[in-house]
Structure prediction request, 324 residues.
Amino acid sequence: MSFPKDRMRRLRRTETLRRMTRETRLSRDNLILPLFVVEGGGVREEVSSMPGVFRYSVDQVVDEAKRVFDLGVPGVIFFGIPNAKDATGTGADAADGIVQRAVSEVKRSLPELCVITDVCLCEYTDHGHCGIIEGESVVNDPSLERLASIALSHARAGADIVAPSDMMDGRVAAIRQRLDENSFEDTVILAYAAKFASAYYGPFRDAAESTPQFGDRRSYQMDPPNAREALREMRLDLAEGADVLMVKPALPYLDILSRARQEFDVPLAAYHVSGEYAMIHAAAQRGWIDGDRAMEEALISIKRAGADWILTYAAADMAAKLSS
Prediction:
């Protein structure tokens, strides 16, 4: 029996050959760890729907930041959960706010760590929406002033990167202008450029106490079927001054990420969100999958699709396993 000369299995025969022919490599430098910060002291409270993920008080988050930096994770992103909330999220841009204090303390202890802050109102408002409310509508333009003020307060606290996640139109331009007017022209903007109204955010909303108290976020987050619109959102954010673009969630939108990689010559980020992380853990706990392998496979798929940065709750665990 004759056989084609091309035998694809030749280069898969040993682990060494597989390593030598591997096309996509996940690196510690690709990883960013989300961290939840709460008021109080000595707090290290596990999130019930996210195994291995905790909410930390400022003193504890400094220790956690040191731990993950020592593992080789180059960056973290902070989400704050204040004790008090109101209609306009006044705690979000307070000089002594929860994120501002966390940023200041971490940068004092670890100046080399890249500190990113989530810029949004949902964790700070009593209604749980990402902008200012009139009646039961989220109004766009009045929200921009609040978002710009929040971003500026984070930059003043020492954030290297501010990341608006609200999906209001024009917020990147408003933030860029406010930062530049106050001599923070070197502060990077990571835009949640294509953020979809996804079912995968549930565990995050538990952790951040940010579930909307009425309605949903579909009037400002993107409709999941829309790909061309996502690319348009990205183009607009670049034109307004974004330095890095993000797709969120990651796994259901790898096609968007891949198309963005082909179109845009800028750094791309993808958020491996709470639901994606929790599903892998839940299946692993039931013995249905190998959790470690599944998590690594998920992150490699995000890297293969084109992400330079991957925001993932598995960052520390994955960094401990990677050789570089």
About this structure: DSSP finds eleven helices and twelve strands in the chain. The longest helix spans residues 140-157. The chain has a mean pLDDT of 95. The chain has one domain: 25-321.
